[in-house]
């Protein structure tokens, strides 16, 4: 059990939901302090998530460092978007206890994804993950179909 109530079951559920976002190619939950990947889905031989996910810990730490130097103490990072020729890379910190420095990392195929919807879906998933109770969010719904009507089943 991780600090703040993030169980392995919660991590697996979160990864499954994120993997069902339209256009999702890869997803991971990463500790940006250590660079350790807590879990992942997807990727390919050409796209090694074991390299990409910890590598983006440096992006996260660099942005937080710049914000601190700018004195932006009242701001938090909602997400970081990196746009490539054929992919979107979304980094979304999990808002929560200060001892858990985690982010959701989502790689989308640009041709298939709807960026605005993917950002919204990832925000909902991050909020559920933070609450640590994936089966009954604030709405009390026990399944992800209410949030993601187009995702029937898992890949």
Characterization of the model:
With 155 residues, the protein is of the alpha+beta class. It has a five-stranded antiparallel β-sheet with strand order 2-1-5-4-3, sandwiched between helices. Strand 4 and strand 5 form a beta hairpin. Helix 1 runs antiparallel to helix 3. The longest helix has 21 residues.
Supply the helix-strand structural class.
Answer: alpha+beta
Stretches where pLDDT is under 50 for at least 5 consecutive residues are: 134-155
What is the CA-atom radius of gyration, in angstroms? 15 Å
> What's the shape?
globular
> In percent, how helical is the residue content?
25-40%
Note the main sheet: 5 strands, antiparallel
Number of strands: 5
How many helices? The count is 3
Mean pLDDT: 83
How much beta, percentage-wise? 15-25%
* SSE string, helices as H and strands as E: HEEHEEEH
- Give the termini separation: 27 Å
Strand order of the largest sheet: 2-1-5-4-3
Comma- or semicolon-separated keywords:
single chain, 155 residues, alpha+beta, five-stranded antiparallel β-sheet, 3 helices, 5 strands, globular, disordered C terminus
SSE diagram, text form:
Elements: H1 8-19, E1 24-31, E2 36-42, H2 49-69, E3 80-83, E4 87-93, E5 102-109, H3 115-131
Antiparallel strand pairs: 1-2, 1-5, 3-4, 4-5
Helix pairs in contact: 1-3
Task: Please summarize what this structure is.
Helices cover 32% and strands 22% of the residues. With 155 residues, the chain is of the alpha+beta class.
